[in-house]
């Protein structure tokens, strides 16, 4: 199968298994997801659901244990390490969950931006001064990144991720340490400069600003939201994850009758 030319991301049955000496953790199973150019996706779900793992896969930092993944039309499994590095540097901007991990602590804020820009041609670079201004860091541009506050580091990480005009912006909780005003500024910046973005978030300000939400539960895509309406996603083999608010009516493990309708089915608790 070839990925559609316009898809920024395509996952086809992606599985991620972490193996340690003692245990295997299936973090993601059978993920089917297409993100078209220009879409902004909020990735939602409870802790441990697999959101960060999916983001790492989309960043090309992990290779799927099974299934196929295309980034900008290139299949990750077919790229050698250098081609994958080049694709990441030229096309993908990443903001990791712990902002300090995105930064060189002893280099200044401005040097951190310049360092990220070494990998791409001058033409592709966004002016560092303008970026730092947009995230409100002009006054601390010469301060070592390690001495910035958590919120300042987070804003710097967003500026760095956008510095090379990425085709795809990936961010893990980019507003978790920001007050309302800086959070809003970061959301605006992501919308404006990150034309295609996938953002893990618990922050309603972020998810409301995105064009689509995707909810992961227990390693699977359980639901999607578009235009303010939530839908469950019918998974491979016809599996449906009932949203937690219906678990009281149909507890996990209980039996239900399936009654067909013309355009769908009804589930009714057995024995009623
Ligand atoms: N390096 C690893 N080795 C083993 N298991 C891991 C590793 N990283 C994550 N996991 C496990 O994979 C599952 C998914 O983790 P992940 O960090 O992707 O979830 P998450 O939805 O991002 O959670 P949170 O919202 O708490 O950050 C969890 O069960 C986690 O314990």
From TrEMBL:
Domain ABC transporter: 9-243
Protein name: ABC transporter ATP-binding protein
Pfam families named in the record: ABC_tran (PF00005)
Gene3D superfamilies xref list: P-loop containing nucleotide triphosphate hydrolases (3.40.50.300)
MF-aspect GO terms: ATP binding
Keyword entries, A-Z: ATP-binding, Nucleotide-binding
PROSITE patterns per UniProt: ABC_TRANSPORTER_1, ABC_TRANSPORTER_2
